[in-house]
Specification:
With 164 residues, the protein is an alpha+beta fold. It has helices at residues 10-15, 28-36, 41-58, 62-66, 87-99, and strands spanning 69-76, 84-85, 105-118, 121-132, 138-151, 154-163. The radius of gyration is 15 Å and the shape is globular.
Length: 164
């Protein structure tokens, strides 16, 4: 089943349906958006993982962020000339970028999420925008795909692809 935020709601997403770090779980517009979705239980579970994971990202919280990541994660980002393989390398990159301030998140928003579940695998795509960097940061826009695998009843992120 194909589920998406309709194109006519794009303006709504840019105003009230944005997922912000400050009030991700309490945002009434987000709750209203979620209530309008005709997601099945698997899609709701996957969405909850993505929301929690991105909240941890926006709050610069590596401990919570990596709770949702599989040990064999692969990551492709526009800033790396190579694929990151494994949670150890991903965490090293993540924490280094936080320590030097280059990936400190001022705000983060997900737009137009699409969730597809195929048995014990799920693919989530969305657009994102956020403010990255310390005092000299900038707003950046990305397209993101997250692949999840259900392992012993728990959804884990096994692949991330981010493009500018």
């Amino acid at each position: 089943m194909r589920l998406y935020a309709p194109q006519w709601a794009a303006g709504l997403f840019y105003s009230s349906l944005l997922l912000s770090a400050a009030a991700l779980s309490q945002d009434l517009a987000v709750a209203e958006f979620e209530a309008q979705q005709k997601w099945n239980d698997d899609q709701k579970e996957v969405w909850a993982v993505i929301v929690e994971w991105n909240r941890a990202f926006a709050e610069n919280d590596p401990r919570e962020y990596f709770r949702h990541i599989d040990d064999e994660i692969t990551v492709i980002t526009p800033g790396n000339p190579y694929r990151i393989e494994g949670i150890i390398h991903d965490r090293t990159e993540f924490e280094f970028a936080l320590s030097n301030g280059s990936s400190t998140v001022g705000y983060f928003q997900m737009l137009q999420p699409l969730i597809r579940v195929y048995g014990d695998a799920a693919v989530v795509t969305y657009y994102s925008r956020g403010y990255y960097g310390a005092d000299d940061g900038q707003t950046r826009y990305f397209k993101e795909t997250n692949v999840l695998s259900r392992q012993s009843g728990v959804w884990k992120i096994v692949h991330i692809h981010l493009s500018g």
